[in-house]
Design goal:
Radius of gyration: 34 Å
Number of helices: 22
Helix content: 25-40%
Oligomer: single chain
Number of strands: 23
Structural class: alpha+beta
Strand content: 15-25%
CATH superfamily of the largest domain: DD-peptidase/beta-lactamase superfamily
CATH topology of the largest domain: Beta-lactamase
CATH architecture of the largest domain: 3-Layer(aba) Sandwich
Mean pLDDT: 88
CATH class of the largest domain: Alpha Beta
Low-confidence stretches: 584-602
Largest sheet: 7 strands, mixed
Number of domains: 3
């Protein structure tokens, strides 16, 4: 027997290998054509289908009375799809769209890391003349198209720039952090409510599927549009803002630096949140002009700074209300306790009052804003106990309002001064703190909340700007907010409110804003400013017997609170009360108290 394989055996082995290989190929073809037909058919279809993204309509803003504050208005957006675009048209596109030279090439370069089939927005808010030119030259402009998108409009006239906020094009850094929802060129909330409620407002994107040929030319709808996914509009928010009052506040602050905050006592609903100077939200509806941005950045008054929730200043005499609450609740004084005011108080040096009031109780001390009474009172309370009460009323801490732009302010305690001076820190510091000067710093929003808590006897909810939202059937759904209870005795509030009532309706520092048929309770304040004229402050609530609105006003570098801040609060209160509750504005059991003869001039 030969050791070598015969010719015929080799032939059999060769044919066997050929048959095995052919069998494998036949099986694979059978698998692809029959067994996995659906899978590979879907893949093949995917290669010939173009998904066109449909941006959802952004939710709009209504005020508390269902007046439209922020809407969507149509605007043209020009786009470029890099995979289909001829860069030789760069300069022509830039000229037609009034863009800087090199803009298109820079945009393409910055977005090179993303799919070339994702359309990039070249210009939002394009002129109709540019759109007409694109239409006329469509056959030569491969990869250039336009869509109608929505930009924000403000039909009511109340700008609310710091409260409403704006959206801007998402940055590359944000794209890395955010979820897959966003694509280059998408808008995302940047500040204010637009940012805080971004996920509610943005809605859900839709997609239209289009068949394209090998050159990516559209040839028709995929499956007659049966697989298209419609976009879903974002939630329409119902704000607690009162559009009319917001507009009045903005008009009254025009030309001044300051802020107004108004809250509904007992609910925490913010009816006004105005900061001045403000900025034009229309300039942020699409790409903000560089000249306008430069103007904002160079303005020494910083229009983009939200003074309502971020400007922390000494509260001046408005802080005396807190000292009175703490002292009465702790029992260190009673309503009949009197402290003597001879015009000054000596503690290492002389601290002045704006009059010699004699022996005064707490109600009269609030009414006449007697400094000497409160110089003495803070020593009876103690610094740390005063801070505890301030914290209960939301002073010196973030309130948790539903915008991100908020500061804590400062209410110092003994630990604060020990860090600066050591354990033997000078106790004379307390004198100024008793009248809201020194290191005490609060925001207008905190003052409005604090005044609202006094008006509602210490019970309310965390301040908020959004009441709830409307679903697709226009049914209202409310948001829930944390309850607040400062834990102060009812009789304490009655005493302090009596003093506030007399500030306006007695012989106090706010009699200039008295209204015969609307009883306002308030407190003036003038905060010393080492860098210029004093800041004017005023807090108030009304109607006295059934409070429906609490207001805080700050006018920077203006002077006395009674002269500059109180009239703004009066106009807001009068407008609201006369419009909403004219029959209940006058309390049946509280008569106006005529000013005493020879009453002292305004000092706050």
């Amino acid at each position: 027997m030969s050791a070598h394989i015969s010719f015929f055996d080799r032939k059999k082995i060769f044919y066997g290998i050929i048959i095995a290989v052919v069998s494998v190929y036949i099986f694979k073809l059978f698998q692809m054509q029959i067994l996995a037909h659906d899978k590979f058919d879907a893949q093949a279809s995917g290669n010939s289908i173009k998904a066109i993204e449909q941006i959802a309509l952004r939710g709009v803003f209504y005020d508390r009375n269902m007046k439209l504050l922020v809407e969507n208005t149509p605007a043209y957006t020009v786009r470029i799809t890099p995979a289909e675009y001829d860069t030789s048209f760069n300069r022509k596109i830039e000229t037609i769209l009034d863009l800087e030279s090199g803009f298109v090439s820079n945009m393409l370069y910055k977005n090179r890391i993303y799919s070339k089939f994702i359309p990039l927005r070249v210009k939002r808010g394009a002129d109709f003349s540019a759109i007409a030119w694109i239409e006329e030259n469509r056959e030569h402009l491969s990869g250039v198209d336009y869509v109608i998108e929505m930009q924000r409009g403000y039909p009511y006239g109340a700008m609310g720039s710091h409260a409403f906020g704006y959206s801007k094009e998402i940055s590359p850094a944000q794209l890395k952090k955010e979820e897959e929802y966003y694509q280059p060129g998408d808008l995302i909330g940047s500040i204010g409510l637009e940012k805080k409620y971004e996920k509610d407002l943005r809605g859900e994107k839709g997609y239209n599927y289009i068949l394209v040929d090998s050159r990516r030319r559209e040839v028709g709808k995929y499956k007659d549009g049966k697989n298209d996914l419609p976009s879903q509009k974002g939630k329409d928010l119902v704000l607690s803002i009162d559009g009319e009052l917001q507009k009045i506040a903005e008009e009254e602050l025009a030309g001044r630096a300051g802020a107004v905050a108004a809250i509904e006592p007992g609910t925490g609903e913010v009816m006004v949140l105005a900061s001045s100077p403000q900025f034009d939200l229309n300039q942020f509806s699409y790409v903000t002009p560089k000249d306008y941005l430069r103007q904002l950045l160079n303005d020494p008054l910083k229009p983009q700074f939200n003074r309502a929730s971020m400007a922390a200043h000494p509260p001046g005499s408005t802080f005396k209300l807190l000292c009175a609450v703490a002292a009465l609740d702790l029992g260190v004084i009673t309503p009949s306790t009197t402290l003597y005011c001879g015009g000054s108080f000596n503690y290492g040096r002389s601290f002045k009052c704006h009059g010699a009031h004699g022996a005064v109780n707490v109600v009269t001390a609030i009414e006449k804003s007697c400094n000497v009474f409160f110089y003495q009172l803070i020593f009876k309370i103690g610094l740390d106990r005063l801070k505890e009460y301030a914290t209960r009323f939301g002073l010196g801490q973030k309130l948790g309002i539903d915008i991100n732009e908020e500061v804590r302010g400062l209410i110092p305690n003994s630990a604060y001064y020990e860090k600066i001076y050591g354990k033997n820190w000078p106790r004379g510091i307390l004198v100024s703190l008793g009248i809201g000067q020194g290191e005490v710093n609060v925001t207008p929003l905190q003052l409005a909340n604090y005044c609202g808590l006094i008006a509602s006897n210490g019970k309310s909810f965390v301040p908020h700007l959004v009441k709830g939202y409307l679903d697709e059937n226009k049914k209202f759904h409310s948001y829930k907010y944390k309850e607040v209870n400062v834990g102060v005795k009812q009789e304490v509030f009655n005493i302090v409110k009596e003093g506030m009532f007399r500030v306006v309706n007695g012989a106090g520092t706010g009699t200039s804003i008295r209204i015969s048929d609307i009883q306002i309770a308030g407190k003036t304040g003038t905060a010393q400013n080492p860098h210029g004229k004093d800041h004017a402050l005023f807090v108030a609530f009304a109607p006295y017997e059934n409070p429906k609105i609490a207001v805080a006003v700050l006018v920077e570098n203006a002077g006395f609170g009674a002269t500059w801040a109180a009239p703004i609060a009066k106009k807001i209160i009068e407008t609201y009360v006369r419009r909403s509750m004219p029959k209940t504005a006058v309390a049946a059991d509280k008569k106006n108290i005529e000013p005493q003869t020879g009453a002292e001039p305004f000092a706050d």
